[in-house]
Write a structure and sequence with these properties.
Elements lengths: L8 H14 L4 E5 L5 H5 L9 H7 L8 E4 L2 E4 L21 H7 L8 E5 L6 H9 L2 E7 L2 H21 L4 E9 L4 H13 L4 E7 L2 H5 L7 H4 L4 H15 L4
Parallel strand pairs: 1-3, 1-4, 5-6, 6-7
Antiparallel strand pairs: 2-3
Helix pairs in contact: 1-10, 4-5
This protein binds adenosine-5'-triphosphate and magnesium ion.
The site of magnesium ion has 5 residues, from helix 1.
Length: 245
């Protein structure tokens, strides 16, 4: 999650998800962004519905699961997901729809459920926070991403008091151009403010990562020898072993 757009949330969900699946973990990706790029980025269709039907019509999550790769399943956003932001009935239970849907499904048996969030802080994001045990915030290497981060922290604090339990926070540096002084400065600040919470791996800006979704491929399908594949594989190891800087 990150309110800021274009920091690499979807790229990270897809490629971290595939990296974990390749490491032998069972993984399901849930697309909570109406842009629907989880399905299309994996070469699948967003048309047959998914999270929209779960959240708007109360369909079972298990009925919406599609197999994407070995050990890797997804639930697409579906075309109607944006409508969920405008749901006004249901009071405070509106925020717990995703959590309840997961707990009523066989997804609880998965090793990992990764939830891709929209670049906003509406009802979709609230549902993701309620459902999640841990939060991964991608932070890109520009100054504005630091500003986004402080807003993100306010939202997290509010969510935690609402939910009544702490959410484990992790940060990951994405889209990094380490030759740029600003990028290094941003990484340094993030490390200073969140000691022990920033994954060691730095995801570099890499053209293969930008190209792969247009072919419906993950970075591992598209170019296994790329810097992008190396970085996301390493990030998966960080996550599995809790390796931080
Ligand atoms: N490490 C990277 N190197 C090069 N391009 C990248 C990298 N990470 C992401 N991109 C590209 O940057 C753009 C934004 O990435 P992505 O869609 O993952 O961000 P996002 O945070 O999900 O955006 P949104 O807020 O719109 O959901 C995409 O075109 C993606 O292919
Ligand atoms: Mg996205």
């Amino acid at each position: 999650m990150n309110q800021k757009g274009g920091v690499g949330k979807t790229t990270t969900t897809i490629n971290l998800g595939h990296a974990l699946a390749r490491a032998g973990k069972s993984v399901t990706l849930l697309d909570m962004d109406p842009q629907g790029q989880i399905a299309t980025g994996l070469g699948l269709s967003n048309e047959q519905g998914g999270m929209d039907q779960v959240l708007l019509a109360g369909d079972a999550l298990d009925d919406m699961v599609i197999s994407a790769r070995e050990q890797l399943n997804i639930v697409p956003a579906g075309n109607m997901l944006a409508d969920f932001e405008h749901v006004t009935n249901g009071g405070s239970s509106r925020g717990k729809k995703l959590k309840n849907a997961i707990e009523a499904s066989s997804l609880v048996e998965q090793d990992f459920i990764l939830i891709d969030c929209p670049p906003s802080s509406g009802l979709l994001g609230v549902n993701a926070m309620f459902a999640a045990d841990e939060l991964i915030v991608p932070v890109s290497g520009d100054y504005l991403s630091l500003q986004g981060l402080s807003r993100m922290m306010q939202i997290l604090k509010r969510a935690e008091s609402l939910i009544g339990h702490q959410i484990n926070l992790w940060l990951v540096s994405t889209r990094m151009q380490m030759r740029r002084r600003l990028t290094q400065e941003v990484r340094k600040r993030v490390l200073k403010y969140f000691p022990g919470r920033v994954f060691s791996t730095v995801i570099r800006e890499n053209v293969s990562l930008a190209e792969s979704p247009s072919f419906g491929k993950t970075i591992f399908d598209y170019k296994e020898s790329s810097a992008g594949a190396e970085d996301y594989q390493s990030l998966a190891q960080d996550l599995l072993s809790g390796r931080t800087s």
